[in-house]
Amino acid sequence: MTETESFAYDVIVLGAGPVGENVADRTRAAGLSTAIVESELVGGECSYWACMPSKALLRPAIARADARRVPGLRGLVTGDLDAPAVLAHRDAYTSHWQDDGQVGWLDGIGADLYRGRGRLAGPRTVTVTDADGAVRTLTAGHAVAVCTGSRAVLPDLPGAADVEPWASREATSSASVPGRLIVVGGGVVGAEMATAWQALGSRVTVLVRGDRLLDRMEPFAGDLVAEALTEAGAEVRTGTSVTSVVRVNGAVVATTDAGDTVEGDEILFATGRAPRTEDIGLETVDLDPGSWLTVDDSLRVEGSEWLYAVGDVNHRALLTHQGKYQARIAGAAIAARAQGVPPEPAPWGAHAATADHGAVPQVVFTDPEAAAVGLSLAEAIGAGHRVRAVDVELGSVAGAGLYADGYRGQARMVVDLDEEILRGVTFVGPGVGELIHSATVAVAGQVPVSRLWHAVPSYPTISEVWLRLLEAYRG
User: Which residue ranges does the record assign to the FAD/NAD(P)-binding domain (predicted)?
Assistant: First the structure.
């Protein structure tokens, strides 16, 4: 292995997923020379193993469920999903795990792509080792941005490594439908993959250590999703931990803390994530390998003048859209500093990722969908706000009844009683994913409740729930 070449840039980006691509886009738009380093596929986790393939698997399940709730259509939607067609559609959305299109986009913005393993080698220096062992040294005049994302973590259980379990990547890319699937974990990945594979014909058992699914959202979110999964034929066990797993005659056998066993053809562990920082040379800049990186609101690593950590690696919000938001902020801050202009420290400015602190939106694409932004009631109380929760049954809204016969759902807004603004909003029900941006505008914009009263929802839409919520608050 020999060092062959050295190159100088204004900015070096480690990781060419959506976050790294957006940092590169913003710095190139500012006229800064930018190199981007990727060891796998350009486009990253979201494009090939997370957001895109999972939603391609889920969309047919949701569409069928919605159709079966519409009078006059219900009787026409019978039988099983065409699993091969769904999997083929998923493969198309991942570009068959080829990144030519994404590479072409990088070329179009003028960023230089280096394929290989990128590692920090001291301040403002990155080495890239390619598949042939050749090493290139890159130096950054202004910034290095770590955008390497996160990876699934398998639990330290007896037998776990030996059964070749699924993690999130395997769950979204499987070429066939398992006859029986055990899902360990009740977070977003567990709930979504249980929904998808149950709809595709797998017999799903979900084992959740806590007392509900989606435990970071309002309690009713997990309860409604679990109820729907059970009605669809899945088994959801809460308060259940797996103590060991073994593969016997091709089947996975999971033993629980209650001493009983659950059998499946595959087992998915959706039990947490860790930063992809274990082998990127953090020790060469006095940081701990494998750690989450703590940043300020301009996404610069605390204590550094040149190192940025954007997206999952800073552990603020492990969501693609939030990472892309951070990337836009980081790119603007890097460009400002490169031009000798101090970044704007004020909240809601061009160089501050203020939305990370209480205005983060998320949609869980289960049936029903669960969508939330900002703080839950428990989080708001824990943060010291004096708040009131306002709840409305979504099925009482005229638009919801037209959307689906027997519509079941729930809406909650958490109102700050001192400032008369919303601290958080949660919707659960069919189709609510498209409602959440209006709530995000209200929370991020700190729109007074008195002003929201004049934002008139169209009739008859599900959005009329806003009127019902405000009426309930006013009493």
Answer: 9-324
